[in-house]
From TrEMBL:
CDD domains: MFS_FucP_like (cd17394). One of its GO terms (cellular component) is plasma membrane. The chain crosses the membrane at residues 12-37, 49-73, 85-109, 115-137, 149-170, 182-204, 234-254, 274-293, 300-318, 324-342, 349-366, 372-396, 408-426, 432-454. It is a multi-pass membrane protein. Its main location: membrane. It is found in: Cell inner membrane. SUPFAM superfamilies: MFS general substrate transporter. Residues 12-458 form the Major facilitator superfamily (MFS) profile domain. InterPro entries: MFS, MFS_dom, MFS_trans_sf, MFS_TsgA-like. This is Sugar MFS transporter. Keywords: Cell membrane, Membrane, Transmembrane, Transmembrane helix. Pfam families: MFS_1 (PF07690). GO terms for molecular function: transmembrane transporter activity.
Length: 469
């Protein structure tokens, strides 16, 4: 791979971070579409979860195609370069947004699913290229820190989406005669398509470091599967995305239950924003925690100030009285303690956070009222570092197999298609609350991966901790 100076990475990282923001925003719009389309087409929970099945199923299909190409002909991204791969992914995503025009015009559920599938294919290319690209923009031992930073802005997008997206669909572009109309989705997604094309233009104009390799050095075949951390990481990504998406997809329905909170969609979307906002707080704090360029004391101070500052941003965004959102300060404190105990080690932090989320899900299943509501909303802040930590641990030491390994990890995002559908089928049978057993099992798998990596990368973990002084 071509080398580049460390100082040249700031502009590329900022540019890619902007992409992560839009990517997160549009992905989280699915959580608004699900209850909207459920009412519009009078769907069961199972059928409404086909939104996630179409979107995240595209990740599997797209990644499978990518892997087959790399198996026979070598890694495509390594041949054409990450920049061209990223731009192609953005254009494909914009096309998916444009397809909402005929879907909304004809009001056919299948057309909405088709548009979401194409949108998911575009994001598949971005997952393969952008995540690996960020991990390559600097030393391997700080890859988790960089990816947490970009993922934090991805979470900023997912935090704004329920508020702004919910306003666009439920209020601004709603049917003037009342009720639900497919046309309410038309203009918002055309706007998203336009913004994506502007981001593609920006990335095309910005000079990005080139990581393309010579064709004769391309890895082929199934050699990438020789790495046990990758195989376990694939299962963990499957469960992480499945668990996160399942919780987010059912958030509005869960909070609408009379024995939980009995909230209408307009009010429940604010708590959905807090759920995703928690991930944003955790990722910003995680980027600092997993950095090795400052003392532990300064790091702790920056983490605390950052967490509180982002909390204030979320508070201002959701427009909720302070007494209703103040409960989240408890989760911020617990998250802060979790990072301190994790001591800048990706695997150790993963273990701590997955344990906490298992406890919160158990609480949401067992309890009623505010305790159950607070428990499920609090899961987001502990989801924060999971994707980036699992991802970087899984591709650690893969060398020239990095992009190919990344395609397999992106294929595992299929969990976001499968787990919500399973949870939807269970919800139709045993109720929304008890169906939360599905994400609880997902976090148990992640816990196992964390313990495995603590042993496998013991020396790397110790290096990370020492270099934090």
């Amino acid at each position: 791979m071509n080398n580049h100076k460390k100082g040249n990475n700031a502009i590329p990282l900022i540019t890619i971070t902007l992409l992560f923001f839009m990517w997160g925003f549009i992905t989280c719009m699915n959580d608004i579409l699900i209850p909207y389309l459920k009412e519009l087409f009078q769907l069961t929970f199972f059928k409404s979860m086909l939104v996630q099945f179409a979107f995240f199923g595209a990740y599997f299909i797209g990644s499978l195609i990518y892997f087959i190409i790399s198996y026979y002909n070598g890694d495509p991204v390594n041949k054409v370069g990450y920049k061209k791969g990223i731009i192609f992914g953005i254009i494909l995503s914009a096309l998916g947004c444009v397809l909402f025009l005929p879907a909304a015009t004809y009001g056919v559920y299948g057309l909405f699913l088709s548009a979401l599938f194409v949108l998911g294919l575009g994001f598949t290319v971005l997952q393969i290229t952008a995540n690996a690209y960020v991990s390559l923009l600097g030393p391997e031992d700080t890859a988790s820190s960089r990816l947490n930073l970009t993922q934090a802005f991805n979470s900023f997008g997912t935090t704004i989406a329920p508020i702004l997206g919910g306003h666009l669909i439920f209020e601004l572009f709603k049917d003037p005669n009342g009720g639900f109309s497919a046309a309410a989705t038309r203009i918002p997604y055309l706007i998203f398509a336009g913004i994506l094309m502007l981001v593609a233009l920006l990335i095309w104009r910005v000079k990005l470091p080139n990581f393309a390799q010579d064709a004769e050095n391309q890895p082929k075949g199934l050699g990438v599967l020789q790495f046990p951390q990758l195989k376990r990481g694939i299962l963990s990504i499957f469960c992480y995305v499945g668990g996160e998406v399942a919780v987010g997809s059912f958030m509005i329905s869960f909070l609408g239950l009379q024995d939980i909170a009995g909230l209408q969609e307009g009010e429940a979307k604010k708590y959905l924003a807090i759920y995703w906002g928690g991930a944003m707080i955790g990722r910003f704090v995680g980027a600092i925690s997993l950095s090795h360029s400052m003392s532990q004391a300064r790091k702790a101070a920056y983490m605390l100030v950052t967490a509180l500052a982002v909390f204030v941003v979320i508070y201002l965004l959701v427009g909720m009285p302070f007494e209703q959102i103040s409960f989240f300060l408890i989760f911020i404190a617990l998250n802060f303690v979790g990072f301190l105990v994790g001591r800048s080690a990706p695997a150790r932090t993963l273990v701590i956070f997955s344990l906490i989320n298992m406890f919160l899900l158990a609480s949401a299943i067992i309890n009623k009222g505010e305790i159950a509501m607070f428990s499920i909303v609090g899961i987001g802040i502990f989801n924060s570092i999971m994707f980036s930590n699992i991802y970087t641990l899984a591709i650690a030491k893969l060398g020239t197999y990095t992009s190919q390994g990344s395609s397999l990890l992106v294929m595992a995002i299929l969990g976001g298609a499968i787990m919500p559908v399973i949870q939807g089928a269970l919800a139709d049978e045993i109720g929304v609350q008890h169906a939360l057993i599905v994400p609880l099992i997902c976090y148990a798998v992640i816990l196992n991966f964390g313990f495995y990596c603590m042993k496998r990368f013991k020396n790397l973990e110790m290096t990370s901790v020492k270099s934090g002084h």
